Amino acid sequence: MNKIIVEGLKYKYPLSDTLALNDLSFQVHEGEFIGIIGKNSAGKSTLCQALVGLVPHFYKGAYGGKVVVDGLEVKSHSIADVSLKVGMVFQNPFTQVTGSKMTVYEEIAFGLENSGLPRSEIIERIDYVLNLLKIEQVKDQNPFDLSGGQMQRMAIASIIAMKPDILVLDEPTSQLDPAGSEEVFTAIQNLSKQGITVILAEHKMEKVAQYCDRVLLLHDGKMVDLDSPEKIFSRQDLEEHGVVAPVYARVCKALGVKKAASDCYPVTLEDAEKALRGRLG
Ligand SMILES: Nc1ncnc2c1ncn2[C@@H]1O[C@H](COP(=O)(O)OP(=O)(O)OP(=O)(O)O)[C@@H](O)[C@H]1O
Ligand SMILES: [Mg+2]
Questions:
Q1: From the CA atom positions of the chain, what is the Rg in Å?
Q2: Residue located nearest, by CA, to atom 29 of ligand 1
Q3: Ligand 1 within 6 A of 49 CB?
Q4: Can you give the residue range of the structural domain that contains 250?
Q5: 48 and 250 in contact (C-beta within 8 Å)?
Q6: Eight-state DSSP code of residue 260
Q7: Which residues does the UniProt record annotate as the domain ABC transporter (predicted)?
Q8: Residue 90 in contact with ligand 1 by CB distance below 6 A
Q9: Looking at ligand 1, which residue's alpha carbon is closest to its atom 2?
Q10: Cα–Cα distance between 218 and 221 in angstroms, integer?
Q11: CB-ligand 1 contact for 38 (6 Å cutoff)
Q12: Which of 205, 212, 210, 160 has its CA nearest to residue 187?
């Protein structure tokens, strides 16, 4: 089943004379984990915002085509309606903080309390996400006293606590160190395995290759391709799109080693090791 349908999506910010999104069409199946990649200003964040309805409800401008999430056309529904289906974690976690809560715990509880859930369910969900994102130790701290990485985890926790069917994450680990990023990616992957549809804009190509089912390559607002990580990272024109393939793909390409029974280069450490061992006999 298609969880997200995008058809002929075009969008131009007010006062801009170029399209930030230029005629995008694609579908995402339920439970898929999709990576959005492309150089700076390719349109990744704008596409994320279009999936949750901030484009065109919050960011006005010229809009064409349609975005349907879980059967709901975002243009003809309010952001509040769409947000019941899709949760978004913003590129900058500071944008996401309510600014009115004294502790991390209250901050995460905010959305849940507004949804009218019973108190026991709220407590259970908060405990779950505090543990999932490893932020129990800061639960009584003021959100604005957190480090960038802790704030990013709190932003992700607040959204996951709402249990959306679709999760849109815009560079969710940009403030985290490698170990923290790995933990967050593993947590997101677990949610994806539970059937949640995940859309993730990301610059860390090794992570995209390791975790995503398919990768959408954007360039100047246009969709260049949407395919498996192996196919995308084996493209000859990556440099033109400002993308550097994962290091494993680059090493294998330099050595002329492809994935067994495929025309693509391995993109993960595991596959590269297998292919290299195969080459060495
Ligand atoms: N609020 C805005 N008003 C006007 N133009 C904007 C706005 N936000 C983004 N843009 C423009 O839209 C285009 C797409 O930007 P967007 O932020 O979606 O790219 P991105 O791929 O997320 O980039 P990055 O990798 O830097 O996060 C760029 O040309 C950018 O300058
Ligand atoms: Mg962005």
A1: 19
A2: 41
A3: no
A4: 246-281
A5: no
A6: T
A7: 4-245
A8: no
A9: 13
A10: 6
A11: yes
A12: 160
Check whether residue 45 and residue 153 sit in a common domain: no
Distance from the alpha carbon of residue 243 to the mean position of ligand 1, in angstroms: 17
Distance CA 87, CA 122 (A): 17
Q: Are 146 and 24 part of one and the same domain? A: no
**Structure-token pair, residue 60:** 């006005």
9 and 139 in a common domain: no
On whether residue 28 sits in a domain, the answer given is yes
Residue-wise pLDDT tens digits, 53-65 = 999 999 999 999 9
Closest ligand 1 atom to 15 CA: 4
Count structural domains, the chain. 3
* CA distance from start to end of the chain: 42
Is 240 a member of any domain?
A: no
Whether 67 maps to a domain, the answer reads yes
- 241 found inside a domain: no
Residue 36: which H helix or E strand, with range? strand 33-37
pLDDT in tens, 90-149: 988 888 888 888 999 999 999 999 888 999 999 999 999 999 999 999 999 999 999 888
- Judge if the beta carbon of residue 54 lies within 6 A of ligand 1: no
